[in-house]
Structures are given as structure tokens and as C-alpha cells.
Amino acid sequence: FRSQPPGIALLIGNASYAIYLVHSAAITFSAILARKFASGVLPEPVLFALVATISVCAGIAVHLFLEEPLLRLMRKRKSLATRDERGHIEEPRQA
Q1: How many other C-beta atoms are found inside a 10 Å radius of the C-beta of residue 32?
Q2: Strand partners for 65
Q3: pLDDT per residue as tens digits for the range 2-31
Q4: What does the alpha-carbon distance between residue 30 and residue 36 come to, in Å, rounded to a whole number?
Q5: 4, 8, 1, 2: which is closest to 63 by C-alpha?
Q6: Where are the beta strands (DSSP E) in 10-71?
Q7: Burial 48-78 (b: 16+ CB within 10 A, else e)
Q8: Which residues partner with 89 through β-bridges?
Q9: CA–CA separation, 26 vs 14, rounded Å?
């Protein structure tokens, strides 16, 4: 019996590098906003969970809207490249 992980787990796994890259800035930014607008309004554990969720969502957004399109572009560019007689990749010719 083989089961597939939930879609959200796959998404977070695929976005893990982008999450790693942006989480510090996202935490800083969202903590500043939380302190300014939600301090004293929401309990601290709720603020912590909110800031953590925002940082993960920011990483997922970077993955979906920046990393994935760039990877598709690079794959497309690589597939357009040809190899010369020595096996080296030649850049596609511009028309």
C-alpha cells in the first residue's frame, strides 16, 4: 500500500528553499507590522503563529511566482540549445 503525501506537504516541500531564503525578511517585516497594529489586541502565541504562517506563505509565493517561472524558462532555454560536435552546448541562435 502506497499513499501520496497531501498536496500542501508537497507544495511546502517544493518551496522549502524559497521559504529558507525569504523567511528571515518575512518574519522581520510581519513582526514589525504585528507589533504596530496587533500588539495588545491578539495574544502573543497567536501573533507568533501569524508571523510564522506569513513567513511560510511568503516563501511559497516566491516559489510559485518567481522560482517556478524562472525554472521553466531555464528548462525551455536549455531544450532549445544544441550540442556541437564536441558535446558542448551552443546557445540558441537569435533570429
Answers
A1: 11
A2: none
A3: 788 899 999 999 999 999 999 999 999 998
A4: 10
A5: 8
A6: none
A7: eebbeebbbebbbbbbeeebeeeeeeeeeee
A8: 83
A9: 18
Kindly state the cell numbers that stand for 40.
495588545
Residue 64 — very low, low, confident or very high, per pLDDT cuts 50/70/90? very high
Q: What is the pTM of this model?
A: 0.76
Distance CA 29, CA 31 (A): 6
Name, in order, each residue with C-beta under 8 angstroms of 47's C-beta and a sequence gap of 6 or more.
34, 38, 39
| Distance spanning both ends of the chain, measured CA to CA | 53
How far, in Å, CA of 1 to CA of 88, rounded? Answer: 44
Q: For residues 65 and 61, give the distance between their C-alpha atoms in angstroms, rounded to a whole number.
A: 6
The set of cell numbers assigned to 77 is 532555454
Q: Please, what is the average pLDDT of the chain?
A: 87
